[in-house]
Amino acid sequence: MTIRNRIALQFSLIVASILIVFSILIYFVSATYRREEFYDRLKNKARTTVRFLIEVKEVDRELLKIIDRNTLTALIDEKVLIFDAKNRLIYASVDDQVIHYQTALLDEVRQLKDVETFSGSNELIGLLYQQNGQDLVVLASAHDTFGKSKLDNLRLTLGWGLLAGLSITIGLGIFFAGQSLRPISQINQQVSTITARNLQQRLDEGNRQDEIARLAINFNNVLQRLQQAFDQQRSFVSHASHELRTPLAALKSEIQLGLRRPLTIQEHEEILKNLMSDTDRLINLTNSLLFLARTMESSNQVPFQPVRIDDIIFEVKDELIDAKPGYRVEVDFENIPETETETLVEGSESLLKQVLLNLFDNACKYSSDHTALVRIGTNAHSCQITIQDRGIGMSEIDRQHIFEPFYRAQNALGYEGFGIGLSISAKLMELHRGTLTVDSRVGEGSTFTVSLPHV
Q1: Strand partners of residue 265
Q2: How many CB atoms within 10 Å of residue 383?
Q3: Please, what are the domains in the chain?
Q4: How many helical (H) and strand (E) elements, i.e. helices and strands, does the chain have?
Q5: Distance between CA 437 and CA 420 in Å, rounded?
């Protein structure tokens, strides 16, 4: 069943339930009012008859019958019976008709003084009349032809009205459900035309206020992220192919050069050194690619635990200086932490080491004096590490793309590297719910800031 038909059906069932309950309530109230009103008329007729019989001496039984016969316009098929204390019939308004009753009914009237019941299709009331020491039981019965006719007409009117209301409700439910879901149909048509080749296409966002418009906005955001992911993937493949081709081409050239003519021992050694250098470059690039792929694949499975970021900084400093003795890393605190938890963050020690090692190594590599200035600062919410160099800096355009895989600033092409380290660092910071920002000017150096929420 389509959503449109489901909505129309649910709407119709709700309205039908309301109409049915409302119709039953109207009919029940009308029927109750008719019955009570008719019983009141019977009681008034019964009281009038017994008073004429008992209290008015000038009116005898025959005259009272004549009066009753000439007042039958109000009540149809009317009968009035009056019994004495011994259940003897002392008056009957008509002689050719009989009210069916039982002696128990007379006893019930004497006990309750007022009884409302039925006699066949007629309503019947029983009254106890006490006057001048007499206990008389009056039974009055009549058929409310006019009232029941009105009830029949009301029932017919409600039935046809209910049928017409349900028909209109179903029709309008289908129409308005279709109108309400038309934007979704349009979205379905637009989505069906989007493929990997035209991810730049976007859905119509309408008024950007209702739920369907917000759905289109969110879907467009998803398309934007998908497009960025596809663009990054294409860029990654292109740059990786280029970076891999360069050392492979160099290896092939060196091998071809060695096979072209007989070489001396010194020439062989030089070629082997070149091959070793190109092989190391190829290995480093392959390891970087594998680390980047592993980071992107298993980022959500890395276990986190509380670690002290200042301890990690000093460990990274020692590792870098041991590997490259010509580098210097100066560490200082911008403010002394007031509590131990201000430098305690939730994360992976190995991954955080990788981030800081990349940043420290870059700062030393691009500085003329191979020195990185590291500052540790804390506040009530986070811990910040700034890494400053006195290197070549970068332009505003380069700064906007520096965290993309394989991207390198124009003035950094002469330095060793593949343009992968910063992209890995940025992804690892996202994994740790932190941020990595850069402030740089050409010729003045760069300042990278790592911000991590502390425990």
Answers
A1: none
A2: 24
A3: 3-150 (3.30.450.20), 211-299 (1.10.287.130), 304-453 (3.30.565.10)
A4: 10, 12
A5: 16
Cα separation of 199 and 223, whole Å?
6
Alpha helices in 207-264 (DSSP H): 211-260
What pLDDT digit, counting tens, does each position of 82-116 carry?
A: 888 888 888 777 665 555 667 888 888 888 888 88
DSSP-based helix, strand, coil % in the chain, nearest 5:
60, 20, 25
Pairing of the two strands 445-453 and 328-333: unpaired
**Rounded Cα distance, 436 and 24, in Å:** 70
C-beta of residue 50 within 8 angstroms of C-beta of residue 92:
no
pTM value is 0.51
Instruction: Please give the structure tokens belonging to residue 368.
Output: 């003329």
Cβ pair 268, 258 in contact under 8 A: yes
pLDDT per position as a tens digit, 208-246: 777 777 878 888 888 787 777 777 677 666 666 766 776
Distance of alpha carbon 267 from alpha carbon 258, whole angstroms: 9
Contact assessment for residue 405 and residue 239, using Cβ atoms and an 8 Å cutoff? yes
What is the rounded CA–CA span in Å between residue 371 and residue 445? 12
Write down the pLDDT at residue 73: 45
